[in-house]
Amino acid sequence: MTERKKLTLKDIAKELGISISTASRALKEHPDIADDTIKMVKDFAEKHHYVPNILAVNFRKNRTYNIGLIVPELVHHFFSTVISGAIDGAKKLGYNVLVSQSNDLLADETTACRTMLASSVDGLLISISNETLEADHLKEFLEEGKPVVQFDKITDHLNTPKVIVDDFEGAYQAVKHLIDQGYKKIAHIRGRREVKNANERALGYQKALEDHQMEQSSDWIKDCVHINEQEGYDFCEELLKSQNPPDAIFCITDLVALGVLKYLKEKQIAVPQEVGVVGFSNWKLAEIVNPGLSSVDQHGYEMGERSIVKLIQLIKDHNIENEEVIEIKTKLIIRGSSLKS
Amino acid sequence: MTERKKLTLKDIAKELGISISTASRALKEHPDIADDTIKMVKDFAEKHHYVPNILAVNFRKNRTYNIGLIVPELVHHFFSTVISGAIDGAKKLGYNVLVSQSNDLLADETTACRTMLASSVDGLLISISNETLEADHLKEFLEEGKPVVQFDKITDHLNTPKVIVDDFEGAYQAVKHLIDQGYKKIAHIRGRREVKNANERALGYQKALEDHQMEQSSDWIKDCVHINEQEGYDFCEELLKSQNPPDAIFCITDLVALGVLKYLKEKQIAVPQEVGVVGFSNWKLAEIVNPGLSSVDQHGYEMGERSIVKLIQLIKDHNIENEEVIEIKTKLIIRGSSLKS
DNA sequence: CTGTTAGCGCCTTCAA
DNA sequence: TTGAAGGCGCTAACAG
Which residue segments constitute the domains of chain A, with CATH numbers given? Predict the structure, then answer.
């Protein structure tokens, strides 16, 4: 395979008997340059497949058109949907996306940030790990004048734009739906107290109960740590074996709801007749299970797209002071797990 | 936020009263440089947080430490698993990964390739789209001396290393398992004839039947086009309503198997007693459905990791002539959908 | 052991 | 309307 040497401006200038700067300007149709010259240079460039050396351009301009994107997990329906939206949005605006994952570990997140910074991305899009409480590793970006946009899992310790799902409202609607369906004792298997999304959802749950004068009980609120199927299963068992068992369960996420459904199926407790279940995120699995799992869709693709558009705007404006909060509306998808009628 | 100006080698040299090249060499502990000088420079650099301008280095060295990765779909359990492995592998070797998706369209794939080439990745990792029959857009990489590694969905029109799953053997084992379980009439819902993986799996299916003197029928082979749930459902119906219905179905992928399971459940046909089902890919859904879906695991994470390691090795060796084929072993995961006993 | 010099490819004043 | 020259930050060949 012959590796053809790349044509440079210098080559063009020499061939055409003009100076390098004229060639450079002609290619970008600088108004000072004569039309004839422009045509000549462009024709020549086209004919010989001239491609500017992007490395030189980037070096000169001190930017890369690359954006860093860090998520807790890559193999994850919601996050991969966000990534998909971010990549498509970036492509439209002429940017590339460098993807990395933190595995929900602060150490990995910090490493990823350093790598991104070292490879000189123009900006960062991040959904922080569960362990991230402080944000010093993120401040480094701002100190270098590189904008950061947070999405979904965010921290208030960093003043950047934030693109979030309206967790409160999503939870509120989910619980209201259960109330409308006639469930009387609604439990909530919630996420960690340090995680903002989890708190918002819990608040939405509580507000819905209050607004509709529903019975409340601290026994009906269970705190997840790992937020997995097993916890859903175990908490469901605890709830149903308690003195005052609930007749509906609102879960922090679909995976937890799956554990709940599994327990109910094993014990032959009818869903949705005896117990109603609603999840959060609307993963692929929600439509696959039987009965279908009602869930709150977070519009991940849109979130990714909006986030990247915002970030690129900040990059172009050299703006690292923006703190706008963009809220993506949720949508309750009702399926068999909570639909009595 | 004060944007502190970056320290350069020039600054260090001036401060320390030495030349730029001495500073440069000292930082990389060049043997010619006196230990004292090295120490002095390193101390100074550390104290003042010197970070080399990566853009300048890349420009000078004509490489980016960025690798392009193109998959048909991002929101896809198998591909996101591969990406995860590739990213982790790249990280260990000091490379970043630029991700893009083709949506299984040749046009999008070509665009993605151009963008990657323009942003000057050091090499490309790709799983081609269903539409990709020729490979001219990929040859451009090789022509520029940038190695390419193909994985999973590959084309033989491009001479590069290929990392593939042993589709033939995976299919063979799946079908052999059905035979071992006592199924007598095994059907296959297969993928497109233009797609190599699909053909390999079909051959594995056929060979297993031959080796065990099983009944064969062209009526038992159904060709998918979209490879989705609906096709699985429809073909299952066709198969079971035929003159000579099969008692087991080996599906090209889990999604198709899901459609099959749905049909069987609706018609109250017992799985695995009356009909056995095996899928391919071992997606998350395979363990979630009830009964669990037996499936052939493709070890996506390992595939991503092996692919990227191979690619980086070629980049380092400036080697674009390699055509090694790396085969990842599959593993049959047996679940309720095919386990009679 | 260290400094000088030249240059990577491009852009951008400044001068003609 | 064009050209010459300088420089972005770093590396490396060549001299001392």
Answer: 9-52 (no CATH), 64-164+300-328 (3.40.50.2300), 167-298 (3.40.50.2300)
Rounded Cα–Cα distance for residues A270 and A337 (Å): 10
Inter-helix orientation angle A300-317/A77-92, to 10°: 40
Question: B151 with B125: CB under 8 angstroms?
Answer: yes
Which DSSP string corresponds to A263-325?
HHHHTT--TTTT-EEEEEE--HHHHHSSSPPEEEE--HHHHHHHHHHHHHHHHHHT------E
- What whole-number distance in Å separates Cα of residue B328 and Cα of residue A235? 40
What H or E segment, with its residue span, contains residue B250?
strand B248-251
Over the stretch B271-329, which tens digit does the pLDDT of each residue have? 999 999 999 999 988 988 888 999 999 999 999 999 999 999 999 988 889 999 999 99
Check: CB of residue B294 under 8 Å from CB of residue B337. Answer: yes
C1' (C4) to CA (A25) span, angstroms? 33
Tell me which amino acid residue A41 is.
V
The DSSP bridge pattern shows strands B331-333 and B294-297 to be: antiparallel
B3: confidence class by pLDDT, cuts 50, 70, 90: very low
What does the block give as tokens for A19? 């100076």
Contact B120 A144 (CB under 8 A): no
Which is it for strands B66-71 and B96-101: parallel, antiparallel or unpaired? parallel
Contacts of B274 by beta carbon, 8 Å cutoff, 6+ apart: B247, B264
Give contacts of A111 with chain B, Cβ < 8 Å: 91
How far is residue A68's CA from residue B101's CA, in Å, rounded to a whole number? 17
Chain A from 257 to 296: CB within 8 A of any B CB: 258, 265, 284-285, 288-290
- The two tokens of residue B169 are 């053997």
Query: For residue B251, what are the CA distances in angstroms to A124, A162, A268?
Result: 42, 43, 31
Judge contact between A43 and B34, C-beta under 8 A: no
CA–C1' B60–D7 (A):
15
- DSSP bridge pairs for A163: A151, A326
| B27-33: average pLDDT | 86
The pair of structure tokens assigned to A27 is: 């290619």
- Cβ contact (<8 Å) for B55 and A120? yes
Host H or E run for residue A85: helix A77-92
Report residue A98's pLDDT band, with 50, 70 and 90 as the boundaries: very high
Contacts by residues B40-44 (CB-CB < 8 Å, ≥ 24 positions apart):
B40/B16, B41/B12, B41/B16, B44/B12, B44/B15, B44/B16
In angstroms, the CA A267 to CA B334 distance is: 25
Q: What is the pLDDT of residue B31?
A: 84
Count Cβ neighbours within 10 Å for each residue of A155-164 and write b for 16 or more, e otherwise: beebebbbbb
